[in-house]
Target: 4-hydroxy-2-oxoglutarate aldolase, mitochondrial
Amino acid sequence: LKGIFVALATPFAAQENIAYDKLRKNLIAYEEIPFAGYLVSGSNGEAPALSPAERVELVKQVRKNVDKNKIIIGGATNESTKTTCETCEAMGNVGTDAVLLMCPFYFKKHMTEEAIIQHFTVVADRSPVPVVIYNNVGVTGIDIGIRVLSKLALHPNIAGVKDGDVRKIAGTILETKKKGVEFEVLASTASMLLPSMQSGSCGGIVGLAGALGPQVCELYQLTEQKYKEAINLQLRITKVDTLLLLAGLGVPGLKAAMAMLGLYGGPCRKPLIEPSAADIENFKLVLVEDGFLRL
Model:
């Protein structure tokens, strides 16, 4: 899992059907970028708005249209352990190399450490491909602690975790190393890539790479060689990433940025709404100021 994985946006046509032709177009462009692989049907892919069949079909289509050496990670989060297992199996059958799973959170008061460990253990036992845990506190409201992660890391089919807390990243790496376990830790945002790499992460699964793929991959490469240049590029990327978060632009904003940069962004599925013209113009100015876009 070393390197940068782009969290793919799911392209929709005007009637909100998945535009597989636009997906293929984007993948042709992405294949020219040194990504380690692709996350399909994650948060940036609007996974909650997709049917189970659509999520599996997206994995199948991405697998068919990218280099066989690129790693495909399928977003297989569901609220029940049973359904999660079924999704993992279905995605495994169409070519995913791993699955990314958030903790079930609808009944969050009942998601004790015991329940969390049981869920991921049962899924990992049944999944035909390795499991990567996604500790997405902002969505789930549940922070999977280092103690729980270090226990789950002992499972032979749990490969790693995606996390946005640098202290947690460092602590998880330390604890799993103490136990002699090979457990990959990945950054969850482009804005935290450099500090995460400094803390020992092996790369990142990031949405902003869908718009600024070459720059995010360059940052990853610089972290191994040129620290000063890495800091400068990290600051520029952070400005864009932060604007997406603070302005509340999210996935619609990311898709707008993709369109500005020559990719297909397109509409989101409702209830997500398009950014205002003012927000798009402000975002465009930031991309220009930081040298990511030429008018």
